[in-house]
Amino acid sequence: MSPLRRALILAAIFGVLQLGWQALSGTVVHRAVVDNATVGVAALLVNALTPAVHAAAVGTTVHAMGGGLNIINGCDGTETWFLLCAAFAVAPLKWRARVVGLALGSMLVFVVNQLRILALFYANRNDPEVFNLLHAIVGPIVVILAVASFFYVWMTHHATRSTGPA
To answer: How many domains are contained in the chain?
Structure first.
């Protein structure tokens, strides 16, 4: 398959996943991902790291005395995960390498995004300028670089070798 065709298919898959996710807004699936898996886990981590904060997951918000954090659309890590899904869908990999890579990459997206949320939570409580820098520039770059690096390393070790034009 040509690089242009792969890129077009990747863009189409990413677009369908994004549109599908937007269509799920407000549903039990959306709440499970955002409210429970993202916000709920973030509140648990905050309480494990700083029990005196008494963080609570309330819908899309990590509530805490002294300042919390609202997880809005795009902050839940799904966009990065959709990009990873689309990349693995078009990657020249055997099915086993594709499935295992996507599973490991999915865990990486979740972990890196949770670390980003924790950094934003504490920055929001302590320094709005640092929060803005982390939120707008540093956080997104770190998440994308971590996931792109994982994908690159995975591809380097598992890509199938082409024997001719596809």
So the answer is: 1
